[in-house]
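For this section, I looked closely at the sequence of one protein beside the tokens encoding its backbone, which the following lines show:
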Amino acid sequence: MCGCYPQIPYRGFKKEEKEIPITFPAQHQNIQPGLEYEMNPRPIFDNPNVKGSHKLCNKVAIISGGDSGIGRAISVLFAKEGADIVIVYLNEHEDANYTKRLVENYGRKCVLLAGDLRDEKFSPYIADYVMRCFGKIDILVNNCGVQYPQNSILDISNEQMRYTFETNIFSFFYLTKAILPFMKENSSIINTTSITAFDGKKNLIDYSSTKGAITVFTKSLALSLAEKKIRVNAVAPGPIWTPLIPASFSAKEVEMFGTDVALERAGQPFEVAPAYLYLACDDSRYVTGQIIHVNGGTIV
């Protein structure tokens, strides 16, 4: 550990609404998908006022991009609800190890698997490793993603387009195909799409296109797996304060990020994670092929 995080790993919501930032200090990171420990302020990933109620008792959940941002909040909430967690991430080791400590603070096991999900050979390795560790897989959260704003489609290089599609949607196919043979009845697959799949975004054409693909992937896969009683749903976040934001936008854009929605602020990861919990647990056993919108009031 390099000491970027405090010894006591916690950044939780407090009762006072003022604890949730409305605007942010100007900042920018030059690496995708971004590092949470470099953010100011760091995202709020946990709500200590919510106590676990064993909704995922002894379940095993694989979460891609689970090291930070929304993925970290999902990992922590799932652990609070009794699940063991497998975090798949690229190379953000400091963030991943911090999240591992958070999960273990709730008494659950956490396995870290670093690698590039664009490599189709990585996903079968993940499936094999998890089965050897836990003997089962109950929940898959496809959550990894990158975005590279460009002012015009003419500025989107073929290299960027391939990288974005391979990361944001190809990886979902690869990991789902590898995990599916080990999933049983009442298992759950949850995909992270985006408000941009429904509203578009003029400077995120390739990113928005991948999120549209994820949305239809979710609905089609849900129909395909209904006979097996495996549910497939998605969450479509709006503007959420995650490492991807300072890693994508200019310092000036970051300052006012999220203030253009009805609630006039960006959301925090802990405000999105409960949607994933609902879709992962038995509360949603009659829900499949659906998209839950958590976006601060944007009408879609």
